[in-house]
Amino acid sequence: QKEVEQDPGPLSVPEGAIVSLNCTYSNSAFQYFMWYRQYSRKGPELLMYTYSSGNKEDGRFTAQVDKSSKYISLFIRDSQPSDSATYLCAMSIVNNDMRFGAGTRLTVKP
Amino acid sequence: DTAVSQTPKYLVTQMGNDKSIKCEQNLGHDTMYWYKQDSKKFLKIMFSYNNKELIINETVPNRFSPKSPDKAHLNLHINSLELGDSAVYFCASSQRAGGGHLLYEQYFGPGTRLTVT
Q1: Is-contact A18 A77, C-beta < 8 A?
Q2: What is the layout of strands, in order, in the sheet containing B73-78?
Q3: b/e for A45-75, b at 16 or more Cβ within 10 A?
Q4: CB contact at 8 A, B23 and B8
Q5: Are A19 and A80 in contact (CB under 8 A)?
Q6: How far apart are CA A89 and CA A87, in angstroms?
């Protein structure tokens, strides 16, 4: 079993839809939970991060962590075509030693 | 100004060759990394260097060797290239992890697409 599992998709939604992206993990020691966005032919860029459990909101994006279920989510409200990218979850025990999910490819259609 | 840059952007070479990928960061960070992203987009850390010390090495074949001439550069040398080395290689940098729960964000370069034929 991989440490971090993420459905690679692809996921296609109409503009304005709410998008839900998820990851599960097996290592209960993970404390830092991150979401990266990667546009085609570009490097990943940090979108959201959460320490331990809870929710975090930033504009149209909400990150949720449920450590009891070993499950993290990223919600995108009012999705836009510019949100079309691959979204990678990442997590770590200590800062900087990250384990990535496989990434979910999202397409938002106008 | 580019924060993390890599050269070359594309690299096509034959099996058995030796090649290098260069990485430079102008962010003043003290830790740099190399990641490999395979065709399924799975991103896996290969190395990180902090103050010229290797602090992570994730079961990478010894054909791969990082070289850091100074804090702003971390180059990746690959000997005897194999077909399975074909992937996109990303360089990244961050400040060293410290105490507390502040995340030290890693900034990624644009990637080097390596194709071994």
Answers
A1: yes
A2: B4-7, B19-25, B73-78, B64-70
A3: eebbbbbeeeeeeeeebbbbbeeeebebbbb
A4: no
A5: no
A6: 7
Report B:52-111 residues touching A (Cβ under 8 A).
56, 90, 92, 94, 96-98, 101, 103-111
DSSP chain B: --SEEEE-SEEEE-TT--EEEEEEE-S--SEEEEEEE-TT--EEEEEEEETTEEEEE-S--TTEEEEEEETTEEEEEE-S--GGG-EEEEEEEEPPP-SSS---PPEE---EEEEE-
Residue with tokens 């939604």: A13
Looking at B57-66, B77-86, B97-106, which range is the least confident one?
B97-106
> In whole angstroms, what is the distance from residue B31 CA to residue A38 CA?
21
% of chain A residues with pLDDT over 70:
97
**What pLDDT is attached to residue A96?**
62
Q: Which residues of B touch A43 (CB under 8 A)?
A: 4, 90, 92, 108-111
- B108/A45 Cβ within 8 A: yes
Residue A90: which H helix or E strand, with range?
Answer: strand A85-92
Of B42, B97, B110, the CB nearest to A95: B97
Q: Tell me: the pLDDT tens digits for B36-55?
A: 998 877 888 898 888 767 87
The one-letter amino acid at B80: S
